[in-house]
Amino acid sequence: MTPIILDTNIVLDLFVYSDPRQATLDKALRTGGMQWLTTPAMRDELTRVLDYPQVAKRRLASGQSADAVLAQMDSLAKFVAHAPKAPYTCKDPDDQIFIDLACEHKCVLLSKDKAVLAMRSRLARLGATVATSMA
Asked: String of b and e for 39-78 (b: at least 16 CB within 10 Å)?
């Protein structure tokens, strides 16, 4: 099983926006082809973001409660310990936990965040790959 880290925007694409560009990822998570690694802090961030007005509006329009989205995360993700700080620091402090975990596990970090994408080459030196989708 291939380990993968999903930033919050990717999780929203999967469970709130049903973005077709994430269909390959969705299938891989549900069939066990990928192992989504996450931490309690990442779940806390998702919990907070699910109540942002623009996200809540979309979530409610599709008939999803925040608890239902979090239940999907809980059922598909493997919770692991918080990772130590990576040698590189992201300009967006909210993204650092994702970078740290990807570097610790030397795996793919899926993100659409510009600050994370700008770190692609530095993170590759540490064994982490940054991508926007699995397609």
From this structure: beebbebbeebbeeeebeeebeeeebebeebbebbeebbe
